[in-house]
Amino acid sequence: MTGRVAIVAGGTGALGQSVVGRFLAAGATVCIPYAVPAELEALHARFGAGARVHAAPIDVTDEAAVGAFVKGVLDAQGRIDILVNGVGGFAGGDLVSTPLAEWQRMMTLNLTPAVIGSRAVLPAMTAAGYGRIVNIASRAVVPPIGGFIGYTVAKAAVITLTQALAREVARGITVNAVLPSTMDTPGNRRAMPDADRSTWVSTEAVAEVIAFLASEAAGAVSGAAVTV
């Protein structure tokens, strides 16, 4: 990825930091829209705040803000080669018990940023004839598991968006989704302290798959939903 420029939405989260680290190790410049200052501090403590890491506080559900961020990246770097849509959120509940506001929040957190981010970067990728878009869905939606239907439907929509968009983009641009099973993150350990973590997947393992799909080597892969 030497010379490539990547935007990693959600890049300060648990999975996002592993993706950022993997991309930096491969030589990419990484631009991160972030929401939580403490997470950015943790990322800088882990990888430093060098010339190949750029971050700005952005609401990734705000199309105007994302558009301005993307324009800033293009003005500064001259290109955008990779977009990872890694922002998301989780909520439990079946259909009857899930308030409409919570349903809409699941869509806003899990689907809307992927739509807005992809819309923002595609003109530059199309002009360049090259691009890699990687969306993050969930292994729990293939097949769907009951008990958190708002999250399930939102992540399933991410997969459908991926497959539909892969058919729309110009040659040279790929769109794929990665579907992690339960990841071994501090948040999941706090939420499920008594769970058997032997089957959980590391964020580094997921980042490896994302890095492959974001690389030049994956040029023949598009519209895929890859479980990890």
What form results from the Cα inertia axes? globular
Counting DSSP H or I runs of 4 or more residues, the number of helices is 8
Strand segment tally: 7
CATH C-level category: Alpha Beta
On the 0 to 100 scale, the average pLDDT is 94
CATH superfamily: NAD(P)-binding Rossmann-like Domain
Count of folded domains:
1
**Could you give the distance between the termini?**
22 Å
Question: What is the compact description of this entry?
Answer:
With 228 residues, this protein is α/β, with parallel strands linked by helices. The protein has helices at residues 14-25, 37-47, 63-77, 100-110, 112-128, 149-168, 186-191, 203-213; strands spanning 5-9, 29-34, 53-57, 82-85, 131-136, 173-179, 225-227.
What attributes does this structure have?
Rossmann fold; alpha/beta; seven-stranded parallel β-sheet; 228 residues; 8 helices
Structure explained in plain terms:
The chain is of the alpha/beta class. Helices cover 45% and strands 16% of the residues. Strands 3-2-1-4-5-6-7 form a seven-stranded parallel beta sheet, sandwiched between helices. Strand 5, helix 6 and strand 6 form a beta-alpha-beta unit. Helix 1 packs across helix 8, helix 3 packs parallel to helix 5 and helix 4 runs parallel beside helix 6. The radius of gyration is 17 Å and the shape is globular. It starts with a strand and ends with a strand. The mean pLDDT is 94.
